[in-house]
Amino acid sequence: MIPGVNSDRLWxxxxxxAKIAALPGGGCGRLALSDDDKEGRDLFVGWCRDAGCSIDxxxxxxxxxxxxxxxxxxxxxxxxxHLDTQPHGGKFDxxxxxxxxxxxxxxxxxxxxxxxxxxxxxxxxxxxxxRFAPAMVGSGVYSGEFDEAFAHSRKDADSxxxxxxxxxxxxxxxxxxxxxxxxxxxxxxxxxxxxxxREDCPIGVVIGGQGQRWxxxxxxxxxxxxxxxxxxxxxDAMAAGSEVILAVETLALANPPHAVGTVGELRVxxxxxxxxxxxxxxxxxxxxxxxxxxVELDKTLRDRLAVIAEVRNVDIQVDEIWDxxxxxxxxxxINAVTKxxxxxxxxxxxxxxxxxxxxxxxxxxxPTSMIFVPCAGxxxxxxxxxxxPEDLAMGCDVLLRSMLExxxxxx
Length: 411
What we know:
By secondary structure, the chain is α+β, with helices and mostly antiparallel strands. The protein has helices at residues 7-18, 35-50, 95-110, 137-143, 148-152, 162-168, 195-198, 237-253, 291-312, 331-343, 358-362, 389-407, and strands at residues 54-57, 63-67, 77-81, 114-115, 119-123, 184-190, 203-209, 211-220, 224-225, 260-262, 266-269, 275-276, 279-288, 315-324, 327-328, 348-353, 368-373, 409-410. α1 crosses α3, α8 (237-253) packs antiparallel against α9 and α10 crosses α12. The model has no long low-confidence stretch (mean pLDDT 97).
């Protein structure tokens, strides 16, 4: 009989990790490869060593904590997520997946359960992309989506590179990224959306993820005096940029129910109260689970920007920095999750992830699936992010059984 996980211990691990870079509103601001991220990584590594795991760190700073199996030739069955957060992030996004993996190992130790294949917990570097864009570069280099030199060259707002920070905090490992073999990968995560809570469904069996495109857009007009420049003839980059932002929203609303569009960053030059802005730079994020629809959204967006540029007499530069195709997860891994939930008599539903996750990268080279649990109001990337201990433990129980389905218990 497979035991249940220790719900109290799982919750305490989450709360202990949340003390690092804690924010006044109850969330966390643990940016990738910062001193706070190092502290969180160090805490995780210490816990894993206490649980008898060996530690391997690759050249992207991805951490692999291994509990040995009885067959050293078998590829490990892995789980995990990330420890970095948004600047005003919550306690659970990513961190739950890492702590759930640690709890799986602790539970196996508690009951002296041996597995044929090793069990691993992975921490992927810079999943959020809030300090170094694009997101998911650690898992992306592992899967072949990104070149390592490209990833190491990514700069933050202070022009510090990701590679420099890996070295500085001591997480530039010797193992080449991608050399670490895995036989299967499961990621437990809060849903970051309202569907499971709305339907009172404890488990989401994730069958795939939306495709997404990221753009850096620059609108170039002309600085001018705010008081003495007549309205006709102005080349106001802010006004033109505002039209672009509304065009993104209109585009998503015109393609229901799956299309979403977001402008999340904005920089204004010269950013002066009494000067007409001559340059505005911002990000655009569009997503859809169908690849052809993404192509059509891209074309429509570019056509609309061209019209705005002509009418407003500005130059609009569009740099597409990321094109992530929709992901379909492995059917055997999906079956392992559904079987585990069914055996526990837990209600579940299939779901497509609207957010990008490390699992969406890993799926390109390792059989992969995800397990979602509800979060309050579907709120995430926010200090108010919240989840119930019972839901987190239930998801961890499903994760434990799913991993054992593939790793095989040794009697």
